[in-house]
Amino acid sequence: MQQNDTGYLGNKNLKRRDVTLQFNKEQIEEYIKCSQDVNYFCSKYVKIVSVDKGLVQFSPYEYQKNMFKSFDNNRYTICKMPRQVGKTTGVVGYMLHKILFNENFNIAVLANKQVQAREILARIQLAYEWLPKWLQQGIIEWNKGNIELENGSKILASATSSSAVRGQSYNLIYLDEFAFVPRNIQDMFFASVFPTISSGQTSKLIITSTPNGMNLFYKIWTDSVNGNNSYARVDVHWSDVPGRDEAWKEETIRNTSVDQFRQEFECEFLGSANTLIHPTILSKLVYRAPEVIENGVKVFKKPVKDHYYAITVDVSEGLGGDYSAFTVIDTTTIPYEVVATFKNNEITELLYPTLLANVGRFYNNAAILIEVNIGSQVVNILHEDLEYENIVITKASAKKGTQIGAGFQRQNRMGMKTTKITKRIGCSNLKALIENNKLVFFDYDIIEELSTFIVDGTSYNAEEGHNDDLVMCLVLFAWMASQNYFKELTSTDVRKKILEDNERYYEEELTPFAIMLDDGAQQDVDDVISGISDFDRFLRS
Q1: pLDDT tens across 194-235, in order?
Q2: Residues 58, 193 share a domain
Q3: Residues 271-313: pLDDT tens digits?
Q4: Buried b (16+ CB within 10 A) or exposed e, 469-490
Q5: Does residue 177 carry a catalytic annotation?
Q6: H/E run at residue 213
Q7: From the candidates 30, 148, 177, 371, which is the catalytic residue?
Q8: What residues make up the domain containing 94?
Q9: CATH number at residue 491
């Protein structure tokens, strides 16, 4: 060794830049062996902090060795792992190996919170300080958020966000506990960063997390299982950790809960607590890619001749906050099926009606029920300017509550104003429809929203940080589908009877749809459909 003062800023455990060391034969052999084998490097030279034993030598478990292989052999790896199994420790050893034995290797460590990302960087720094000087690179920068080594390699620690690594080039991006990053940030991150990653030939993306509902982590994992993306999977079970057996499981459940153990240790993709739909049902829901996406509309099944469709619509202000959304549902047979969906938080109330009219006509002149708490402009344009006739009309009655009306009587309105009562009825019916397999859907966004649609006082709403716009469309449909007249309308014999009894109303310019009252009292069929326009075309379309 040619210099005695080799420390970095007074830290004698770190080698400063421009320090020349003389290697002996054994050190050269060890250096080469470490550079070629990350398992050997970790098990012999990397120190970690154990909760029970303090500073100890890192001895990778078999699943951690499998992680290393996956990281080396694949550009994209997603790891579904229980709590407290050493998932971060394994990645720390791998990242340390990469910056030591590669020139100009840049890594971004991103976590759901900046403090967590910096804690991971601190683990790398701790392991680095305990390396022998002959394995170290000289330090250029060393702080809570960055490491830069003499060989040009760097590590950045930051919170996961759309701007965290924008405009920068990285060889490896590590996303820790990605399932706990808010959904909107997950989406923005991938939209802004993934094109940069995929544009390279060797850049890598590593995701590790314990499941946390059915968000983007769930989608990436499920798409990998189904062969719909390029991610390699590392699936770790709690029993893969030495010392964890059935006795440990029973004690953990006693001190927590069965649901908590299922999510945090069995790694099941459960929704939030107190969801409208039971977690067991949620965990069995599956999604698939739409047949086509046109103007933001995801089409899962194209219209079928002589089938009857209903479109339920939620309207937002189009200012980037809440979403405007709609669901198209085939009501011809039970189970009802969601055949198309739309969700966008930027479409304006001036453009939304045109999209609705086009989709409605595409789906056999579907009946459209619009929530008009803030959507009155949409329904007016749809009816008056675009001349779409098949808009559901409702009326409010102090005695009987909100009901579907017919004709343009004084107390009637096009669309429906959601109240506490109609929402409660809709939520109750939606739960029954889904849990009894009477309503099927394959849209990932619906599944994700249902997993965070939770009890809120005496009602249900989206969990904080999430949205429920598509779910509310289904709530509207569930309210509508529970009505007796709706059930009769899907019967061929009843449709013919209505057609025969009301020929005199065919040409009147009134809405062609009618439903029974909220309280279940049956209206006279003739009264309900009185004034229905162009009903023959609707029935025979």
Answers
A1: 776 766 678 899 999 988 888 889 889 989 988 889 999 999
A2: yes
A3: 666 889 988 888 888 898 899 998 899 999 999 999 999 999 9
A4: bbbbbbbbbbbbbbbebbebbe
A5: yes
A6: none
A7: 177
A8: 7-265
A9: 3.30.420.240
